Amino acid sequence: MPVYSREDDILATKIVSFFPQNKDVSTHHAVILVFCAHTGIPKALLDGDVITAKRTAATSAVATKYLVNGKPDVLALLGSGVQARSHVAALCELFTFKEIRIWNHRFDGAVKLAKEIGLNCAACRDVSEAVKNADVIVTVTSAKDPVLRLDWVKPGAHINAVGACRPDWSEIDADLMKSAVVYVDSREGAIKESGDIILSQAEIYAEIGEVILGTREAMRKKTTVFKSLGMAIEDGIAAKLVINKLGIQ
Ligand SMILES: NC(=O)C1=CN([C@@H]2O[C@H](COP(=O)(O)OP(=O)(O)OC[C@H]3O[C@@H](n4cnc5c(N)ncnc54)[C@H](OP(=O)(O)O)[C@@H]3O)[C@@H](O)[C@H]2O)C=CC1
Ligand SMILES: O=C(O)C1=NCCCC1
């Protein structure tokens, strides 16, 4: 995933592998190579795993800030892996949830994460139980077929749809995609790579950047989906923060 931004003084590329069948090691591995944006000289080779986890969750947190309907009390996560953990951390920086619910296709994964999070968190055996009356839902699974259905979701909820990053995979059922107001990180990416968009033929209302810039409306009262695929600029900006903190010129 290459990025060049003259404005941000960034020239970098991330190489990321995804082996969903991995069991005892992470399913995603990444490195980020950063170059000087003026001379092209290599500056740093960074571990991309942590940056991928944190920048994806930070992006969802920003989307939630703009799209959530009022003060959210209940957070539901579908999936209990790396992104589930980073999303809890990022969302809890911005919001105070009274209740956090976790569903995973293997119940013990949900139980383990619920214990890590603590008091206000419960593991759920069914998706419908996890998302009932939830204000914010995060889908962070490696599912190839929908795990979240329209009739389980409270009208007006905000959903961060983070998994299903292939054109033939989907996490959200087509009825939910079509009835929600859909925001994406990149239109160009979503229409080529997101099964949730392609298979449902849902209309994309806006890029989240347009909402942040104030050129498209945040439809907070409607059910909203932020379909995230990940963008190289997120890695580039995050890598720059790391490099600056380390004092690398
Ligand atoms: N939008 C973006 O920018 C990014 C998106 N992603 C995507 O987010 C998703 C989560 O990533 P990450 O947390 O790193 O991955 P992990 O492998 O750490 O977690 C995946 C989760 O999905 C569960 N899972 C696996 N297979 C299925 C299935 N068939 N049905 C339902 N759940 C399943 C796993 O359960 P168990 O471990 O118990 O099997 C686990 O809870 C992936 O789809 C990934 O590609 C990742 C990085 C960036
Ligand atoms: O780093 C990203 O962005 C990724 N997006 C989709 C899934 C793999 C990693």
Automatic annotation (TrEMBL):
UniProt-listed Gene3D superfamilies: NAD(P)-binding Rossmann-like Domain, ornithine cyclodeaminase, domain 1
Example GO CC term: the record gives: cytoplasm
Query: So what does this thing catalyse?
Result: L-pipecolate + NADP(+) = Delta(1)-piperideine-2-carboxylate + NADPH + H(+); Delta(2)-thiazoline-2-carboxylate + NADPH + 2 H(+) = L-thiazolidine-2-carboxylate + NADP(+); (R)-lanthionine ketimine + NADPH + 2 H(+) = (3R,5R)-1,4-thiomorpholine-3,5-dicarboxylate + NADP(+); (S)-cystathionine ketimine + NADH + 2 H(+) = (3R,5S)-2,3,5,6,7-pentahydro-1,4-thiazepine-3,5-dicarboxylate + NAD(+)
Source domain of life: Eukaryota
- Coiled-coil positions: none
Question: Which terms in the Gene Ontology molecular function aspect does this entry carry?
Answer: hormone binding; pyrroline-2-carboxylate reductase activity; thiomorpholine-carboxylate dehydrogenase activity
- Offer one Pfam family short name for this entry: OCD_Mu_crystall
Q: What is its EC number?
A: 1.5.1.1, 1.5.1.25
For the protein in the UniProt heading, the enzyme class is oxidoreductase
Record text on subunit structure and interactions: Homodimer. Binds the thyroid hormone triiodothyronine (T3); T3 binding inhibits enzymatic activity.
Family according to the record: Belongs to the ornithine cyclodeaminase/mu-crystallin family.
The name this protein goes by in its record: Ketimine reductase mu-crystallin
This chain's source organism reads Biomphalaria glabrata
Gene (UniProt)? LOC106057249
